[in-house]
Specification:
With 248 residues, the protein is of the alpha+beta class. It has a single domain (66-242), classed as Glutaredoxin (3-Layer(aba) Sandwich), CATH 3.40.30. Helices cover 45% and strands 9% of the residues. The protein has helices spanning 40-47, 93-111, 128-145, 149-160, 162-165, 170-180, 185-192, 195-212, 232-245, and strands at 73-75, 82-88, 116-122, 219-222, 225-226. Helix 2 runs parallel beside helix 9 and helix 3 (128-145) packs antiparallel against helix 4. It is globular.
Length: 248
């Protein structure tokens, strides 16, 4: 079983073999997203021993029997008429900038008003091991609280403290963040040993790669199509146009 005593976290199931493209600049999709092509590890995830389990759990196909931690992570009204999918990584500085600088205005104008739902999907980037760990803790926090908002609160905390916990001495910092989500070290170890959590993250990677051609983070899909949005004004214009099409 994986333990926090292993500071490199080598052996986080099959996940740590997925060295996906790093967050960077210059993409034509998303705020300063990366342009590096999808790594061969995406293909490895698709054909590996757990590939049969890598099926995303979209909100409209849930049976109600899955733990909350394995469900699609949606912020806002799940029945909102407009869907904005974000592929992001908690280790990506541009993703952190989006959530700290741009997303609050989007959330206030569109998500909180029931016009748009944000579907957040994991797409781990370097350092990939730490991205998996952060995402796993965020998902497990949902089972602790019984509230999907715990996922988003944990992700926000990971973004705000990104420079602290992405370091050589990341263990105490990651434990502090986990504690805020109601998880002690034993709970974190139990979380990181859950293969099904890794499988869901991997499923999101495969969907991003195979369905939308995602190569970097952050990347955005608005009602099924990639959008090239670089600023708050870009996002608001795109979402206003989507709302206008619905006559709202």
């Amino acid at each position: 079983m994986l333990s926090l005593k292993h500071l490199s976290f080598i052996g986080l199931a099959a996940a740590l073999t997925l060295g996906l493209s790093a967050c960077g600049e210059g993409s034509d999709n998303g705020a300063d997203a990366a342009t590096a092509p999808a790594n061969e590890a995406v293909a490895e995830a698709a054909t590996g021993p757990n590939a049969g389990n890598m099926t995303p759990l979209p909100a409209n196909k849930l049976t109600g029997d899955e733990p909350l931690s394995l469900q699609e992570m949606v912020q806002g009204d799940p029945n909102a008429p407009i869907e904005l999918i974000e592929y992001a990584s908690v280790t990506c500085p541009h993703c952190a900038t989006f959530h700290e600088v741009i997303y609050p205005a989007i959330k206030e104008k569109f998500v909180d008003t029931g016009k748009v739902k944000l579907v957040y999907r994991e797409f781990p980037t370097a350092p990939t091991q730490l991205a998996y760990i952060g995402f796993a803790i965020a998902r497990c926090s949902v089972d602790v609280s019984g509230n999907p908002e715990s996922y988003f609160a944990t992700v926000e905390a990971l973004y705000k403290n990104q420079q602290k916990w992405i370091s050589q001495d990341f263990k105490p910092e990651i434990l502090k963040l986990a504690a805020q989500a109601g998880m002690d070290e034993e709970a974190v170890n139990e979380c990181l040993a859950r293969q099904e959590v890794v499988d869901v993250i991997n499923a999101n990677i495969l969907t991003g790669d195979q369905t939308y051609g995602i190569t970097g983070t952050p990347s955005f899909i608005l009602d099924g199509k990639k959008i090239n949005a670089q600023s708050e004004e870009d996002f608001i214009a795109a979402l206003d146009a989507a709302v206008a099409k619905l006559g709202q």
